[in-house]
Amino acid sequence: MAPPQGPRAPLEFGGPLGAAALLLLLPATMFHLLLVARSGPARLLGPPPYLPGLEALWSPQALLLWLTWLGLQAALYLLPARKVAEGQELKDKSRLCYPINGFQALVLTALLVGLGVSAGLPLGTLPEMLLPLAFSATFTAFIFSLFLYVKALVAPASALAPGGNSGNPIYDFFLGRELNPRIYFFDFKYFCELRPGLIGWVVINLALLVQEAELRGSPSLAMWLVNGFQLLYVGDALWHEEAVLTTMDITHDGFGFMLAFGDLAWVPFTYSLQAQFLLYHPQPLGLPMASVICLINAIGYYIFRGANSQKNTFRRNPSDPRVAGLETISTATGRQLLVSGWWGMVRHPNYLGDLIMALAWSLPCGVSHLLPYFYLLYFTALLVHREARDERQCLQKYGLAWHEYCRRVPYRIVPYVY
Ligand SMILES: NC(=O)C1=CN([C@@H]2O[C@H](COP(=O)(O)OP(=O)(O)OC[C@H]3O[C@@H](n4cnc5c(N)ncnc54)[C@H](OP(=O)(O)O)[C@@H]3O)[C@@H](O)[C@H]2O)C=CC1
Ligand SMILES: CC(C)CCC[C@@H](C)[C@H]1CC=C2C3=C(CC[C@@]21C)[C@@]1(C)CC[C@H](O)C(C)(C)[C@@H]1CC3
């Protein structure tokens, strides 16, 4: 059994009390958003329109559907992959292998859903099941996190994450103890981060579009835009699946309730909020405004993809001709930091692009309600917090070289603002 690492890693998220509050607050916020999106006034701030009873939340059919979905995605994960990629080096100097077949899973899911719809599957009824489905996803995330917590008790110390091993069970349950929990080749964190939630988000959006078409004759332009933008985002994530192996979630964070709930419940049921809002609150959108919004999304995507690809290319092979001409700072670890190109503009250009896209996803919903802007607000808070965590880790890793980088590139996310 692995001993707890003690209080060496500083506690995050407000320690055990903060973690306990988040355990309740995150699911409560998700249900609040689901209820408010379908209510007439759609008021983000204020009490929910009603408190659902257990009969509105608990449905064996929804649980069965949810488990079938997880099973389908797990089966697609296990299919032969076009490539097997190596992850970052671990504490014991080994590297784990990951199948690169996420995009294939998206395409096969689309084919299966298409086949199902042509065989009479009532996709348009899915929006009515969102509440019990979200409840099933939350329930499974709790049970799954318990399993992960217990599994970590028998994991070797070298398999534990730097945080999440404080010895406080609530805090550790929330943050996650084991870095890469696996059963043989099946990596739970990698699977959850990119498959059931992200692909589920796209399917929920599509079901909302289908229901809107059934209700009003055809989907609105606003609904098309939201569906198109978010499909591009998910498709891009799965196309560049290998890049997720260098994100903080995979390389640093343990797998516990925060990520299990985030991946399985929060992403599909709250990231589809704009499409949910549009189904119940149709918004007029003219072609000129739609073109402006498309341009905003394109600019955001260009920055997001450019910055992420530049860093990934550089980390994989610094002498790649696409990045070889960029200016760098050497660090004591032997790794270098880019100080020109996207990473010379601000210290997190990828966050900037992501935030611009988040704005483009809300704009089709008009400006009469705050609710569709929830994602933008939450995402700004998430990225500011994430950026602070990343800066702490980089300072620890690179010391003086990081100070030099901050001096050369003073702004964090938005040039001349922040
Ligand atoms: N939609 C959503 O809900 C979310 C989306 N995201 C997106 O995920 C993507 C990945 O984000 P995230 O994992 O947080 O962080 P990043 O991809 O920005 O990775 C940060 C790491 O990049 C390396 N790095 C930092 N500066 C430089 C530099 N100048 N030169 C070279 N390497 C550098 C450091 O690691 P090292 O030096 O060790 O390589 C650092 O720890 C982002 O695009 C973000 O917007 C993130 C969270 C949620
Ligand atoms: C529930 C809490 C409020 C916090 C949970 C956070 C998670 C929802 C996010 C943490 C990092 C994420 C990433 C993506 C989705 C959201 C979560 C899981 C990502 C897969 C989205 C698509 C991007 O292209 C990406 C770069 C692959 C993202 C990686 C990080």
From TrEMBL:
An example of a Pfam family matching this protein is ERG4_ERG24
How this chain sits in the membrane, per its record, is: Multi-pass membrane protein
Q: Which GO terms describe its cellular component?
A: endoplasmic reticulum membrane; nuclear inner membrane; receptor complex
**E.C. designation(s):** 1.3.1.70
Under PROSITE patterns, the record lists: STEROL_REDUCT_1, STEROL_REDUCT_2
Which keywords, in A-to-Z order, does the entry hold? Cholesterol biosynthesis, Cholesterol metabolism, Endoplasmic reticulum, Lipid biosynthesis, Lipid metabolism, Membrane, Oxidoreductase, Steroid biosynthesis, Steroid metabolism, Sterol biosynthesis, Sterol metabolism, Transmembrane, Transmembrane helix
Question: TM segments?
Answer: 17-37, 57-79, 100-123, 129-150, 255-273, 285-304, 324-343, 355-384
Which pathway does the protein contribute to?
Steroid biosynthesis; cholesterol biosynthesis
GO terms under biological process = cholesterol biosynthetic process
* Localization in the cell: Endomembrane system; Endoplasmic reticulum membrane; Microsome membrane
GO molecular function list = Delta14-sterol reductase activity
* Recorded catalytic activity of this chain's protein: 4,4-dimethyl-5alpha-cholesta-8,24-dien-3beta-ol + NADP(+) = 4,4-dimethyl-5alpha-cholesta-8,14,24-trien-3beta-ol + NADPH + H(+); 4,4-dimethyl-8,14-cholestadien-3beta-ol + NADPH + H(+) = 4,4-dimethyl-5alpha-cholest-8-en-3beta-ol + NADP(+); 5alpha-cholest-8,14-dien-3beta-ol + NADPH + H(+) = 5alpha-cholest-8-en-3beta-ol + NADP(+)
Keyword Zinc-finger listed? The answer is no
Q: What does this protein do?
A: Catalyzes the reduction of the C14-unsaturated bond of lanosterol, as part of the metabolic pathway leading to cholesterol biosynthesis.
The family classification in the record reads: Belongs to the ERG4/ERG24 family.
From the Swiss-Prot or TrEMBL record, give the protein name: Delta(14)-sterol reductase TM7SF2
- From which lineage does this chain's organism come? Eukaryota, Metazoa, Chordata, Craniata, Vertebrata
